[in-house]
Amino acid sequence: MGASEVFKDCTFAFVLSRDLPKKLAEDHKPSIEDNGGQVVPFDKDFDLSDVTHIISATVDFPQFSEARLQLKPVVTTTWITASLSRNKEVHPGPYTPDPNMIFANVTITCEGLPSGDKDAIIGAVLAMGGLETSNLTKMTTHICALNVDGDKARSAEEKGLKCKIVLPHWFGDCMKLGKRIDERPYVLPNPEYFTTDPEAPIPLPSTDILNGAASPVPGPLPMPTDSPIRKLTVFANKSVMLSADLQLGSRLQKVLKGLIVSGGGSVTESVHDADFFVCHWREGRDYVFASRYGVDVGNLSWLYHMIANNSYISPLRMLLHYPLPKGGIPGFEDFRITLSNYGGEARTYLENLVKAAGAEFTKSMKQDNTHLITARKASEKCDAAMEWNIEMVNHLWIEESYARCAVQKLTDPRYTTFPARTNLGEVIGQTKFDNAILKQNYFPKDPTPSPDDPKPSRKRKVMREKDRNASSSKRVESDIETEDQDEETVPKPKFKKPAAVSRRSSVAQVSTPASRRVSAGKENDTPSSTGSRSAKDKANTRIHAAAPDIALYEMEKKRKGPVWGGERAAKKMEKEKSMERSSSPAVKHHDEAEDFSEEESRTPGPKRQKTGLKPVQIRLLITGYQGWLGNVAKEEIDKKKLRDMGVLVTSDPSKCTHVAAPSMVRTQKFLCALASGPTIVDSNFIDTCVQKGKIPDVEEFLLKDKGAEKKFGLKLKDAVSRAKANKRNLLRRVPVYCTADIKNGPETYRSIVQANGGTFGIFTGRPFVKKISPEEDDGPAEPVYLITGQTPKEKQLWGKFAEMAVEGNMIPRVVDSEWLLDVAMSQTHKWNNGYLADKK
Q1: Is residue 537 part of a domain?
Q2: Is residue 106 part of a domain?
Q3: Distance between CA atoms of 23 and 9, rounded to whole angstroms?
Q4: Model confidence over 32-53: pLDDT tens digits?
Q5: Among the ranges 3-17, 207-221, 699-713, which has the highest mean pLDDT value?
């Protein structure tokens, strides 16, 4: 292919913005035209049917969601340069401006990693917008390795390549968070991740992304930043409605209207004619109408932001640019939340977000606080939170709870991940709203619309098809459903009497198959049967109307490839839809793979999706099994075989029904699972299932370990029976603390205590109970436990712990970890003075 034909038959449209100014677009235009392409005029609103590629630095433009549906590439200007350098159109995946593709612009090669880790990292990079090369090339941006001793690392240094050699931990932390964090702490040969104290100070990151988006109530009215003499263009040919709930003064209202009109826009008093609707609360007839029919709905802060930057931004892009929920988010009213390790605009933004969600924000932290939101796990507040058993999360929890309109579960590891040497303030403000969730909670389709309801104009229907608010793969689902919204605007017929003429008239108005059977003698159907028939007719009409979108969707499902979309995106969307039917927004993201499998197995009736999977009969937790050690491929194959026969391998001890282990082991997983009273089988059970392809008689594989039973002084069968009776409440109301320097780490003991219903905290010497006199306590003194090691630092805490326990009218017991392990294994309260740490 000649150089002049690289972009043959391609028509490009540039989306101008602050990051892609007109000057930069003009610089690229000759390169495109000299190589056979065409460019739509910069100042013209382009039609998607006329272009093949869209060049943009952002996804905040009206045609983005429709472009995704039509599979039109949306790429940055670097895609043009890369295509010209290779003399062919390169894959658009790594050049997408979509922030959900966190590894866009990353080309990775791996060296010296175990095959399982390598495959997992490469798969994640490909799924999230990156590329992989087996050999080191000039296009390689990252070498994933454990050291710099490999051939690729040495070759990159010798050739002076600009690629970075990073630890695999960087990819792992990015995937845990779902965000791309700075790789500098992970760069070899001397990564801060290993060489620097995790609690050493870190400079606060820049939070420019929050400029103009840190508060739902803006400050003084800004002026456009590009030129003092150039008028606004962001409102050109747009109609803006200012809601009465903004409570604007007459002077400010006059200034805003003047700016909009002088910039080529107009101000309307009717939401039916508006392109932008500005209000403060998520309520009212105008808000619902605008939201249902594709009008951009934002608050005054959003309007000011567009004025200041003279560029369009979706009101769903920044959380505090969208109207506030009156009364907050359900569940937040009982929370008292404070912050740590955030500063500047980030701190202001999170304070306002906490208040908007309906929680109480406190500047200082006390024992009655419920949550600490922190950017890293290093501060006095963090130490106190661990000691007082206050929930400690990063800002993704409050952002996603607000965006999903429901309190998110704290068990999601994304909210409790704190990478070493990283301040998570660097990824703040990247969470956006999903229009489908807002629709479900604030403007669902009206099942019984009134005939007096206003009809959307043709203009509104076009805008709805080109919804500006979508930027994620879930938009495919909501866009397919837009035809249902059209039907909702048609008033349902009122059946005054079951006349035959009315029924025939209703049938005649819809396009139904001619072969549809009508039984004789049914002219006088009851109103209920008439309504049922009308509903079926409407369903047929909707299917016919949605046929083009469904065909496009089915075509997209079949597309395969390394970029996000196609078959993989369709399957993920269908998985999420199944989960939405089976759970609330607050829990649908917890343990997704397991819950989806279970949903398939329990969906009743002929409507159940035919997946070929058997219902889950056994939820199996595996510990101590050696058969998959170092062989990830065999592990995945065996797990699939097990699932096909109805055995779901789970890692959650609270959900398992069976445990497979080679012997009675006092591992964290075994002890946590034992608290549920599961059936415990020998590890040979796994091998037999895989070899025979069916579940054998479980009774033949019950774990028998007489040596361990004698060693621990118990019968496993009796321990399981007691666990079933205890119902995970063995340590209910038993306060258990441990030292921060305990061997194996405090989290190991936390999980065991909490699995058995106890309360857990880390003792660092601060008060943990209120000082009371025995007369004030209305019951006998109860024991309180401190699990400790024998280091000098830990021993210094023993006296203080005992003193504080006595002041709280409690019995102090400073014990070795053997006490907890014996209690959890036997599933009964055990005590003798031999467990005391000072006896060791």
Answers
A1: no
A2: no
A3: 25
A4: 998 999 999 887 678 888 899 9
A5: 699-713
- Same domain? For 716 and 739 the reply is no
Do residues 429 and 396 lie in contact, with contact meaning Cβ atoms separated by under 8 Å?
Answer: no
Contact status, residue 1 vs residue 87, Cβ threshold 8 Å: yes
Beta bridge partners of 276: 240, 296
Residue 71 has which token pair?
Answer: 């599979």
CB atoms within 10 A of CB 840: 12
Within this chain, do residues 353 and 399 fall inside the same structural domain, yes or no? yes
Q: In terms of C-beta density within 10 A (0-12 exposed, 13-18 middle, 19 or more buried), how is residue 493 classed? A: middle
Tens of pLDDT, residue by residue over 141-190, are 999 999 999 999 999 999 888 899 999 999 999 999 999 999 999 999 99
3-state secondary structure 543-610: HHHHHHHHHHHHHHHHCCCCCCCHHHHHHHHHHHHHHHHHCCCCCCCCCHHHHHHHHHHHCCCCCCCC
Q: Is 491 within 8 Å of 450 (Cβ atoms)?
A: yes
Query: What distance, in Å, lies between the first and last C-alpha atoms of the chain?
Result: 80
Please work out, in degrees rounded to the nearest 5, the angle formed at the alpha carbon of residue 482 by the alpha carbons of 480 and 488: 140
Q: Which domain, by its residues, includes 189?
A: 111-195
Instruction: With a cut of 50, say whether residue 482 has pLDDT above it.
Output: no
Q: Is the domain of 473 the same as that of 577?
A: yes
- Domain membership of residue 42 (yes or no) is yes
Q: Which H or E element spans position 613? A: none
pLDDT range class, residue 453, cuts 50, 70, 90: low
3-state secondary structure of 24: helix
Residue 453 backbone phi and psi in degrees, to 5: -60, 140
Spell out the residues 6+ positions from residue 42 whose beta carbon is closer than 8 angstroms to its own: 14, 16, 22, 25, 26
Total number of domains in the chain: 7
For residue 535, the model assigns a pLDDT of 52
Classified as helix, coil or strand, 467 is coil
Tens of pLDDT along 571-626?
A: 555 554 444 444 444 333 434 344 444 444 444 444 444 455 788 899 999 998 88
> Domain boundary at 41, 60, 95, which?
95
Q: Residue 677: left if φ>0, alpha if ψ -120 to 50, beta else—which one?
A: left
- Quickly count: other Cβ atoms within 10 Å of residue 682's Cβ: 18
Among 412, 414, 392, residue whose Cα is nearest residue 590: 412
pLDDT for res 336: 96
Is 60 exposed, middle or buried (CB count within 10 Å of its CB: 0-12, 13-18, 19+)?
buried
Cα dihedral 510→511→517→520 (10° resolution): 40
**CA separation for the pair 29, 35 (Å, rounded):** 10
Question: How many Cβ atoms from other residues are within 10 Å of residue 32's Cβ?
Answer: 22
- The rounded mean pLDDT for the chain is 80
**DSSP states of 751-787:** HHHHHTT-EEEEESSS--S----TTT-SS--EEEEEE
Structure confidence by residue, pLDDT tens digits, 622-668: 998 888 887 888 888 899 999 989 999 998 898 899 999 999 988 89
Identify whether the C-beta of residue 22 lies closer than 8 Å to the C-beta of residue 48.
Answer: no
Query: Which CATH number does the domain housing residue 312 bear?
Result: 3.40.50.10190
List phi, psi (to 5°) of 702: -60, 135
- Do 288 and 338 sit in the same domain of this protein? no
What pairs with residue 736 in β-bridges? 760, 785
Residues 813 and 783 sit within 8 Å (Cβ to Cβ) = yes
